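Inverse folding, one chain.
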């Protein structure tokens, strides 16, 4: 059940997570350059 729920969560949030990671990376880059 846990694995099934995890796979479902990953499928639903994979795109959102990818965008979030890119945004976080951009913020870190801007902070480092500031």
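Residues assigned per position:
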């Amino acid at each position: 059940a846990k694995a099934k729920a995890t796979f479902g969560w990953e499928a639903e949030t994979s795109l959102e997570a990818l965008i979030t990671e890119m945004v976080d990376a951009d913020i870190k880059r801007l902070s480092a350059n500031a």
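The chain has a mean pLDDT of 79. The chain has one domain: 1-34.
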